[in-house]
Amino acid sequence: MRRTSRIIRIRGAAALAAGVLAVSLTACGGGGDDDSGGDDEDKGTGDTGTTVTLPKLDGETLEVAAVWTGAEQANFKKVLAEFEKRTGAKVTFVPAQDPIINFLGSKVAGGAPPDVAMLPQPGAIKQAVDKGWAKPLGADAVKELGENYSRGWQDIGTIDGKQYGVYYKAANKSLIWYNAQVFENAGAAEPKTWDELLTAAQTVYDSGVTPFSVGGADGWTLTDWFENVYLSQAGPEKYDQLARHEIKWTDPSVKEALTTLAGIWGKKDYVATGALGTDFPTSVTQTFTGGDQPKAGMVYEGDFAQVNIGETKAKVGTDAKVFPFPAVGDTAPVVSGGDAAVILDDSEAAQALATFLASPDAAEIHAKLGGFLSPNKNVDPSTYPNEVQRKIAEALVASGDDFRFDMSDQAPQAFGGTPGKGEWKALQDFLKNPGDIAGTQAKLEADAAAAYGN
Fold first, then answer.
1. Helix-strand-coil percent breakdown of the chain, rounded to 5?
2. Are the beta carbons of 306 and 316 closer than 8 angstroms?
3. 291 pLDDT band (50/70/90 cuts)?
4. Distance from the CA of 202 to the CA of which of 3, 176, 235, 454 falls in 20 to 30 A?
5. DSSP 327
């Protein structure tokens, strides 16, 4: 039986990109407030003018599992600390490993699942529901979602008519960050089309700097590259069909996208050395360290790259600038991702945490720390720490349901979300050998057919 993933149907893929392009991202200043936001309890939030009501939970304990590490984990812990302050509950963060479904399976089998898990894929939510692990959200959390989220973001966390997921964290995965000094020295201009991107890359290369940093050790970064190229080149309808495996990975449209990618990945000296051994955080930091002679001039990834940029001396908006992923076809791609809070051990405390995470209160604490994007439409934009992040957030909210969700995140975990397997491994092999397009397609199709069961 074919497994069908949830997907948002949209009117036009260009709307969010147009919203981002409508502002001068690169002219915006950096800087920000590192306050944890713990004093936000009495502050009005967004358009609601109130804070979320939470029960007193003195003596209650909760475990929250997520794959987040580094600054991302540290910032989320500040949100959890505010929940503790307001309720009296004690919350423990449990570091999880990818794929998180396997991690949760071992916890369930051992009789000690976390109370709440942050799941990065709609496919993972579906699996958690199918396995009987996930519990539906209660009335308070559903009410909070209805007040603060567009229908599209609610639907992604809905399975068989019941709400299971709170999409607490979103991502705009259609951005390319660049070292401003490198571009200035080279005389490179921000591109709006793929051909212009290749021109900028050659200009940077001619100046003596490798154009691209790629975090190939983390296979998900490679799926994101593919999805942006594919969405723009093949179009939304084909994207939806491939996401549901209604067309095969041997389709000519996939060949065309891989051929386009090979124009960068297969170009001698266009990708910083050791890409397959470079994890995502390093791919970002090595682009913004080394003065005007970094290991690369550009790095592709979402708005969350700001967390890693923040670990360098570069300032977002001045030293580190950004442009939307260029149009490969008729329109620029708009790919979004996100992490949803899902309850595994139903309790008053777990439901209260889900309700809190669905509120503007929680999101605003995290937003001011940087590297975070919320789909919550009632988050006050002024809480974002710099103009770049603010405009990206405003464009996401303004787009409503007008986006495509990350394709690999919609796939069964075995194909789209497991290190060393499926799409991650096939694209890592392709990065190593960009000339093997037919072999890559055959491997992708074989793995997809096995994972989808068709």
1. 45, 15, 40
2. yes
3. confident
4. 235
5. B
User: Which two three-digit tokens encode residue 436?
Assistant: 């093997």
At 93 the three-state DSSP class reads: strand
CB 212 within 8 A of CB 415: no
Cβ atoms of 145 and 269 closer than 8 Å? no
- Has domain 44-171+336-405 been given CATH number 3.40.190.10? yes
What does the pLDDT look like over 400-410, one tens digit per residue? 776 788 999 88
CB 157 within 8 A of CB 197: no
Q: Which of 32, 102, 103 is nearest to 366 (CA)?
A: 32
The span from the CA of 341 to the CA of 190, in Å, is 37
The CA-based angle 395-390-193, given to 5 degrees, is 50
The domains spanning 44-171+336-405 and 175-332 adopt the same CATH topology: yes
Task: Give which of 445, 358, 372 is closest to 168, Cα–Cα.
Answer: 358
C-alpha 182/C-alpha 76 separation (Å) is: 33
403: region left, alpha or beta (phi > 0 left; psi from -120 to 50 alpha): beta
Q: What is the pLDDT of residue 402?
A: 65
Taking CA atoms, 124 is separated from 192, 312, 346, in Å, by: 34, 33, 18
The Cα 233–Cα 86 span in angstroms is: 48
262 Cβ partners below 8 Å, 6+ apart? 434, 435, 437
Q: At what angle do helices 360-367 and 70-87 cross, to 10 degrees?
A: 140
CB burial of residue 66 (10 Å; 0-12, 13-18, 19+)? buried
Listed by start position, the domains of the chain span 44-171+336-405, 175-332
CATH class of 175-332: alpha beta
Q: What is the pLDDT of residues 123-167, one digit of tens each?
A: 899 999 999 999 999 999 999 999 999 998 999 999 999 999 999
Give the HSE-up count for residue 441: Cα atoms under 13 Å, Cβ half-sphere.
18
| Tokens 């990708």, located at residue | 271
Q: What are phi and psi of 295, to 5 degrees?
A: -70, -20
DSSP string, 356-409: HHTSHHHHHHHHTTSS-B---TTS-GGGSSSHHHHHHHHHHHHTTT--EE-HHH
How far apart (Å, rounded) are the C-alpha atoms in residues 99 and 117?
12
Q: How many CB atoms lie within 10 A of CB 36?
A: 18
DSSP structural state of residue 261:
H
Give the list of residues 6+ apart from residue 331 with CB closer than 8 angstroms, or none. 12, 13, 14, 17, 232
- Tokens describing residue 53: 């009501």
